[in-house]
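Hi everyone,

Forwarding the result from last night's run.
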Amino acid sequence: MKKQLTFILVLLGFASVAVAQTEKPEGLLPIQPFAAKVNAQAVPQLIDARSAEEFALNHIPDAINFNLQTDGYETLIKGISQSKPVFVYSIANGRSVALASDLRKKGFKEVYVLDGGIGAWTGSGNPLYTTAKKGLTLTEYNQILASNKLVLVDIGSKYCGSCKKVKPILETLRQQHGDALKIIEIDLEESPALIASLKTVSSFPYLLLYKQGEVVLKHAGLTDLKMELDTKLIAAK
């Protein structure tokens, strides 16, 4: 009986760990409720938790920029009101979740994190400050779709670690399919207007596969990416 009870307790312990690992970080919000809460504030307390270099290239209007590694961090957070909501984002969820967690430890009660980061913000067509000059236009994009049977679009950022892991997959696909598959790569730093106009990107990396101008696959992130692309490409031929 004791052995059975011990076994059951061990199973419950593993189950608790599994649940904890799948739970979303506190305050993590999808783009629509996040944007709605930001827009409801007359002067939102909006923090971009990326690097200063990233922030200089593009950011949500009215955001300020710092993270846990920023010099003078402790002084900077003293300029933020603990009685009002705080909104945090980065390129994914890593730096923003870490910053939000520290702010809560310091007494901030209402801290929200944008799930999917600036990719989700831009991909939903929300306003963005950017230094990009031209980039690929929607007209040029549609011309590529019209002139190629199969087009794979890789959307991301040069500062996105996960996005860099997509590149070897793209190279493999180029070798496998040759001219039969047109591959285009779109970065936030160069073509934010195009990303916004597509109104489909939910995070970086984000891939779209088109067959004769119609979307046959939308894929966010790296999980099962190569397998899903291979399956769709075989079916599309």
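Residues 5-21 have pLDDT under 50 and may be disordered.

Cheers,
N.
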